[in-house]
Amino acid sequence: MRYLCLLLFLMLAACSKTLSDQEYEAASQRSANWFAQNYELIHDKQVMQYFDELTSRLDRSAQYERASDGASRHTNGKPWTILVAKSKSPNAFSLGSRTIVVTTGLLTILDTEAELAAVIAHEMAHELLGHTREQYPTDNSPRPNIVFEPEHELAADELSIQIINHAAYDARGTLMSLARLYRPHGANVVTADRKLANERLGRSYLEVFSHTRPLTPGVIRSRDFARMQARVFAILHKPA
Q: How far apart are CA 240 and CA 237, in angstroms?
């Protein structure tokens, strides 16, 4: 999912070329460094272990999906890295090179592990489908200026639902996470194209209820998710 609420994602002209592997790795690393310098990142062992296990589960599912449909995916086999940035804005986005940023604002509004899995799977899908590489600017800017087209968002939604289905998560988490992210949260209003929001919700609904067979509850909320979320809350509210 591309959640356009952080102002750092600026609209740029289309890239003149697709980055080489070396350029892509370098661009991703510059973006990760930018976040480390401009946001306070959470390095808590319990939180990081939770995301390592979640991304490993989703990655195994993505590889199963790749093998089953014969499609070529952009993957280099290295583990996924999650950067947890302290920000009240609920957001998640792919930096490329199997690195994903999630904000604490996102973790505080999601209610279930299925919802979080849907968000992470969506960002994985952007990279697996080659969107992140295609949309990276070629000006060597350290600031991650990536904007996905509506067709990219819809394609990532479709693949992410397949991924979380194979990972035995409740695919309805996709609908709930989209609904949460496309509505105001107090002072933190998620800005989005309303037409695109409606199309994403509509298509995801059809994908979940028409193409998920059999439709089983799957994993909705786990104790590990609750512990991770409680740990994040504790870190955010820790006395100075």
A: 9
d(CA 152, CA 130): 10
Q: What is the mean pLDDT of the chain?
A: 83
Residue 10 covered by a domain:
no
Question: In the predicted model, is pLDDT for residue 21 greater than 90?
Answer: no
Task: Please report whether residue 12 resides in a domain.
Answer: no
What are 186's two structure tokens? 């107090």
Rg (CA), the chain: 17
Q: Quick one: DSSP state of residue 22? A: H
Of 203, 210, 189, nearest to 5 by C-alpha is: 189
Q: pTM for this structure?
A: 0.85
Selection from 10-19, 52-61, 187-196 with the highest mean pLDDT: 52-61
CA pair distance 226, 231, nearest whole angstrom:
8
Q: Is the pLDDT assigned to residue 234 strictly greater than 90?
A: yes
The number of distinct structural domains making up the chain is: 1
